[in-house]
Write the structure tokens for this entry.
Amino acid sequence: MKARAQDWSSYWRAPDRPLEAMHAHFVEHVYHRHSHDSYSFGVTEDGAQSFSCRGAAHTSAAGMIMAFNPDEPHDGHSTTDLGFTYRMVHIGPSLVEGALADLAGGRAGLPLFAAPVVADPVLAGALRRLHTALLDDRASALRRDELLADTLAALVRRAATTAPRLIAAGADDQVATLVRDRLHAAFLDDVTADDLAEAAGRSRFAVYRAFHAKYGMAPSDYQRQLRLREARRLIAGGLPISHAAIAAGFSDQSHLTRWFTRVYGLTPGAYQLSSTLA
């Protein structure tokens, strides 16, 4: 008979703003009734969690979303004796309001989520991507900010009952060009969303919206593309792959190999060999 997995959890907290994330598996643990001063959004990965909220009982099974407004009491426990695994992101109201104001092009107010459980694969995917980046030491601050903007916009559009109106993303050529120039000038730097906002004279979320509208990708993806091009140039010039990876801004050779293969369809080693034989 297979033994049950033990309870475990890991936690991440941003040092400079109200943003936290938890990844946990609970079999025995039972949450006492409590609330948070933040918005709390979770996705159940495995098993099912049962909880009471707003005077009713709810169950979040694998793939479902949990959405709690600030100061909303709830409890929680495993639905079965096999336990449940889930990812939770806590986002402060000030951060939510600021992000949505940028997306709406002005003061937007705060959303209200009336359904504590939402079945939406798109939202589940967005939350997983954001949560994974928050707990990944190799994820850049820029990438985390971009995923936060995407996830908040998706949550408001798809799950909020009372929601600010978000304007359509319109191209702002000047902002996008300034950001592109900043990335080209220092693509090896650990550029943050605040750096790009300062360069463009706009907010972080306005920068992301304008750049994505014009160039079809997030600034972090564009920066990675520039680093991959530099790695190709260095490898073709005879630099060992491990040295090229570091020189091009990747954390190590495996990091370069993963992205090089994903983008170009061959490994850096195969590219190096083709350069040698050419």
Remarks:
- The chain has three domains: 8-159, 173-216, 228-277.
- The CA atoms of residues 244 and 267 lie 13 Å apart.
- The radius of gyration is 21 Å.
